[in-house]
Design a protein that fits this description.
The longest helix has about 35 residues. This protein has two domains: about 290 residues, Cytochrome Bc1 Complex, Chain C (Up-down Bundle), CATH 1.20.810; about 45 residues, no CATH class. Helices cover about 55% and strands about 5% of the residues. Helix 13 packs across helix 14 and helix 13 packs across helix 15. Strand 3 and strand 4 form a beta hairpin. With about 425 residues, the chain is mainly alpha-helical.
Length: about 425
């Protein structure tokens, strides 16, 4: 049956004048009425809502279906983009000025220290969100056909996120940043054949100085930003084309109908789910009666059901980052000094697991082969896993291997971050904590 039309009250006064103006109608092209046709056309006619499918599985509304980790990662990136642009107004990528600019942010720039705190905590949370999003996708088996390539794009986004945090780590030009990047960049030189060249290219020389700071700054604000936008655009496009991996069985085709005012044709917002999970959608007109249309109860319009939930999650993510920025100040240690080595010199926390691995294995194995094989395995995963089932009980071996590697990496990170002190000796964190995020 067709949904009854809901009488719409026309705005009065200045609102009516604004909404009927040529300027407003040239920008807002979708109807305002709350009906199936209006909701569909609102999505088609809005550049932001067009990112979403017109209709989504009802299961997607449950928070635990995806934990909203992909959306949270996008929100955190937006926070980082806004705060990063603000910080760029007061930062000079020069060895003689960078540290002074950090001090000016703390004392003379309006909300400068708060913005820097939010930027730093947002970067840490984004690394965690992207990692856990990848974990969630693996557990749900959402990397399987036809979504293999989108999984590869997701791995690329993880690499870009780690590179974002690593290149931004050097910019304060204090002792913490200088020696953390020194430890991290030293891992590159162990790559056989090209290690030395890669390190020199990254640093602009054999030591960390003006060339390294400038290159890290350009890579951080320009190169990685362009790469992230490109990968994210492809990621979202493939998400729309490949369909949402929610539930064990993709819903069948559905049609939502509404009679037009001026003729008896039926306007159909058709969004068809193919057996492999892909979606075909469009708006068509047909003379078929309303009994021909199907509106299964397992799907809802993305606007407003899913989008309102995303707005709540976005506000919660912003509140969390702001709360962390208010409660915890981003560290700023002494001016970078290549002649004074702090003890211990630790890589950033997301690379400290590799540093811990270096204490037990050859640098070539721990610094190059281990991370290289891990990234290659993640990229190849959807193509070597031939098991078509997404059910956890049918993927016990894959889950055991994945969780074993994940737990091992987590343990190495915790040990390196919390249980290592001067000389990389073992210390208890409740006696003395040698860790700064």
């Amino acid at each position: 049956m067709t949904e009854p039309r809901v009488p719409q009250s026309r705005p009065q006064g200045w609102r009516s004048w604004v909404q009927e103006s040529a300027l407003y109608r040239s920008i807002i092209r979708s109807p305002a009425h709350d009906s199936p046709r209006g909701r569909a056309q609102r999505a088609f006619g809005n550049v932001f809502l067009h990112v979403y499918p017109v209709r989504v599985p009802r299961a997607l509304l449950r928070f635990r279906s995806t934990w909203r980790l992909g959306f949270i990662s996008t929100v955190l990136f937006t926070i980082l983009l806004i705060t990063g642009v603000y910080l760029m107004f007061f930062y000079t990528p020069a060895v003689s000025m960078a540290y002074g600019d950090m001090q000016l942010l703390r004392s003379q720039v309006g909300f400068g220290q708060l913005i820097r705190n939010v930027h730093r905590w947002g970067a840490h949370l984004m690394v965690l969100a992207v990692v856990f999003h990848l974990v969630r996708v693996f557990i749900d088996g959402a990397y399987k056909a036809p979504r293999q390539f989108n999984w590869v794009i997701g791995v690329g986004l993880l690499v870009v996120t780690l590179a974002y945090s690593f290149t931004g780590y050097l910019l304060p030009w204090d002792q913490l940043a200088y020696w953390a990047v020194t430890v991290g960049s030293d891992l590159v030189q162990y790559a056989p054949g090209v290690g030395g060249w890669m390190r020199n290219f990254l640093l602009g020389g054999s030591t960390i100085g003006q060339s390294a700071l400038l290159r890290f700054y350009v890579i951080h604000v320009a190169v990685l930003t362009g790469a992230f936008f490109l990968l994210m655009a492809v990621h979202l496009w493939r998400l729309r084309k490949d369909g949402l991996a929610v539930g064990d069985v993709a819903p069948l085709a559905h049609d939502v109908t509404e009679r037009a005012d001026d003729h008896e044709a039926i306007t159909v917002a058709a969004e068809t789910w193919l057996p492999d999970g892909r979606r075909v959608l469009g708006v068509v007109e047909t003379d078929e009666g309303p009994g021909h249309a199907r509106a299964p109860e397992d799907e809802v319009f993305a606007w407003p059901h899913l989008i309102i939930r995303h707005q709540v999650v976005a506000l919660a993510a912003c509140a969390l980052v702001l709360a962390l920025g208010v409660a915890f100040e981003a560290p700023l240690r002494e001016l970078a000094n290549p002649n004074v080595t702090p003890e211990p010199s630790k890589a950033p926390w997301y690379f400290v697991g590799l540093q811990e691995l270096l204490a037990h294995f050859d640098p070539l194995v721990a610094g190059v082969l281990a991370p290289g094989v891990l990234i290659a395995a993640l990229v190849a995963l959807p193509y070597i896993d031939r098991n078509p089932s997404r059910r956890p009980q049918d993927r016990k071996v894959a889950l055991i291997v994945f969780w074993s590697l994940f737990i091992a990496l987590a343990v190495l990170t915790v040990i390196g971050a919390l249980f290592r002190g001067p000389g990389w000796g073992f210390v208890l964190p409740w006696e003395h904590l040698y860790f700064e995020p």
